[in-house]
Amino acid sequence: MSTPVSPPDAEALYARLLDLTRQWLSGQPSPVHLVGVASGGVWLARRLQHDLGLAGEAGVVSSSLHRDDFAQRGLSMSAQTALPFEVDGARVLLVDDVLYTGRTLRAVINELFDHGRPASVQLAVLADRGGRELPIEAAICAATVDVPAGQSLELVQDPAGKLAFVLQDKGA
Questions:
Q1: SS3 string of the chain?
Q2: Model-level pTM?
Q3: What's residue 3's pLDDT?
């Protein structure tokens, strides 16, 4: 009999992500534009933008049009790409909730480049669960987590903005 696994504390990981991002930004030339990957990454990017006291608003990028499983999924209900800055020559910090295979990030980078050619693109994630299929690595990672086979780690946000992780069976 297997022991149930508890999901990590998303609020505690967010506090760590905030601290790591603040440290990382202190060593970067300004400006760096935060862009959240729809949908959990958007919640994180907006919150980081506010908590770090950065001017403007965080961008949003969708993976929908560039996914390698587009034929099966079609256009999902995720947010549309909205980048409130000139992408050409910009320094971009992509923010996502969970890094797993890297396939979503590949699609997001393709979408970003449809809008221009940034000077650099780095990645910040709340949780890295391993299992990479592509050579993608986060510059900022709050935690590496183990997730049982057959389950996914999903970030949810309540109406007050509090974050939590839930484990979902992949077939559900």
A1: CCCCCCCCCHHHHHHHHHHHHHHHHHCCCCCCEEEEECCHHHHHHHHHHHHCCCCCCCEEECCHHHCCCHHHHCCCCCCCCECCCCCCCCEEEEEEEEECCCHHHHHHHHHHHHCCCCCEEEEEEEEECCCCCCCCCCCEEEEECCCCCCEEEEEEECCCCCEEEEEEECCC
A2: 0.90
A3: 59
